[in-house]
């Protein structure tokens, strides 16, 4: 593991070959690392009155992944907070001496280069869930940190949620629901743009774990399924799923009635859906984005929803999170947004809590993690983040 001395010196060599400055940072980091008891900080969303309503509700600050007793019985210190932003927040107080930081994409602790630089004891950044873009991954790599997530933990949760959002948009569900709450009854106001999903062209940008599960779930709806990815699926899987590979993203997008985003947020996907790209989409396109808010240009989405070029936009990811009260996506027409929730079902929580515990156990024993969990290891970013 990156925190072993041998690996750390390999990291130092790697870093100094790229950039001589951080080598001194790494050296001091090594000196401060304590071999025994660790200070572990968890940043999770606050559940308040909901915390005690389900014994399996592990993802909140109060229940803190259910690992407090286990950690403390081994002499480790476990600080948990939801106060994560700004120079005077609770998290900031612990940055200088924490060894491990655990956070979730649902209420992410933003780990900037500045925080990494201050965190002289920090060795390990764990994401309870999937998607570690809240970490400055280059800075983490240069500092010799390990970044890992619980790969696969909530992919079913997200794929199911995406299917729901597609149907909500295609059937124009929300206006009807609002009518019921407001004591109204106006079939026409819903029906003039409610469609069947059957026969429509649905394209996923990214067909990794979530994208594939979504395509599998869409197959019985008899749609025309397309996917764009860095990597083509093996032919047998492709024919089982029944989706056609589109190597050129810009050739695929204008064919789609529904576009679903399923890539991580990386330097290549940030702002991928800007004004120019959105202008080339079919007029009336529906977009589902549970991947990351920053894959979209915020204002371009607002403008296209306002003009009706995007007829419906739904997702649970925002930039930043929590979304401020004045975030323009809250107020744009044709949206079916929610807070970031799709990957934090109770089933998902049980899986990512178990995955975090497993990685901590391995970390204490100096063992490697499952290889697919690493986002940064030994100074190197996982393939798709490079
Ligand atoms: N909303 C939620 O609760 C939630 C939960 C889990 C994951 N997510 C998001 O979904 C993302 C995908 O998760 P996953 O488990 O399917 O990941 P994955 O790694 O299995 O799949 C990602 C796919 O995207 C492809 N990809 C990466 N960069 C690309 C690019 N520039 N162009 C085309 N394809 C590219 C990869 O080749 C891969 O097939 C996560 O990174 C995370 O941001 C959101």
Automatic annotation (TrEMBL):
The gene is LOC105177139. It comes from the Eukaryota. It is found in: Mitochondrion. InterPro entries: D-isomer_2_OHA_DH_cat_dom, D-isomer_DH_CS, D-isomer_DH_CS1, D-isomer_DH_NAD-bd, FDH_NAD-dep, NAD(P)-bd_dom_sf. One of its GO terms (molecular function) is formate dehydrogenase (NAD+) activity. This is Formate dehydrogenase, mitochondrial. NCBIfam families: PRK07574.1. Its main location: mitochondrion. The lineage of its organism: Eukaryota, Viridiplantae, Streptophyta, Embryophyta, Tracheophyta. It comes from Sesamum indicum (Oriental sesame). Coiled coil: none annotated. PROSITE patterns: D_2_HYDROXYACID_DH_1, D_2_HYDROXYACID_DH_2, D_2_HYDROXYACID_DH_3. Belongs to the D-isomer specific 2-hydroxyacid dehydrogenase family. FDH subfamily. Substrate binds at residues 130, 154.
